[in-house]
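Long-time lurker, finally posting.

We've been working with GntR family transcriptional regulator (Rhizobium miluonense) and I want a structural starting point before designing mutants. I don't trust myself to interpret raw outputs, so I'm hoping someone here can both generate the structure tokens and explain anything notable. Sequence follows.
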Amino acid sequence: MLVGAGRMRIVRRQRPRRLLKIARVPAAGGQGGKETLGAMQLNSKAGWLTPIDPDLGNPTLQAYGSMLSALQDGRFRPESKLPSERTLSGALGVSRTTIRQVLASLARKGMLYTLPNRGWFVSLRTYSEGQNILRSFSLEVLEKGLKPTSRTLVQRVRPATLDEAETLCIPPTAPIIELRRLRGMDNILVGLTIAHLPEQIVPGLETIDLTDKSLFETLRERFNVFPTRCDYQLRADSADDETAELLGIQPGSPVLIGAEITYDQHERPILTGQTIYRGNAYRFRTSLYISESSRPPRGGVD
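Top reply, 14 upvotes:
Generated this for you. Predicted structure of GntR family transcriptional regulator:
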């Protein structure tokens, strides 16, 4: 409240807007600077949209990966309106034409929908929680109040096979790091994890002690590599003699095999491999939704 010259003026304080973070980017030659829209903070519990890195090429693919990760992580609430195209393009560092292509691609996947003259909205089916969110084995176990355990069987550098090179987008015979680890909960054996990572992305990983440690946490802390999404396939099988001996079960016993390809914040494939679970020690849960096009009108069914 300000008082002066016999008059009183009430000043209302506005709540600070927390949607955008303004970053100062140096101008060419280091002279001065200009303000640009930096990474966009979606809410206090979410991370940041990852701006594109010109050195990684293909800005459209990078912007798509960043938006896809934000949707899969639940950073945008279901049925909520997205920020404007101008805001998104500024946050990601791409043109409005590029962001329109990205949004249209996500809409074709059923993750977004648009309303005339109102903008872009998040479809209900993009909301993720529980087992639908990408978590490391260690974090899943810790959230159950148990202790994750890990014993390394193989940790070496070797040439990639043709299939591994194709999946990881690296040249044939390029060096990869192979990891084989027995995973457990409170020292009760659960499964065998086999992982292959490009050596050029995680140099020296073969020398790090991973006993009872999270691989995802190691990637983040030691290599600034952040796993953001995973293509995952699950199938039933029977244990061969070698697997059965490692898992302490009879040959031919039922096992569940989860095959994965994991991508980082730059939409690069960083890991391919599989986890073989004892059939009596693993349960997979997910949520299934009707597609947006098959959903009845919001006002009800005629």
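Before you design anything, note these points.
The first strand starts at residue 2 and ends at 4.
The chain has two domains: 35-126, 130-278.
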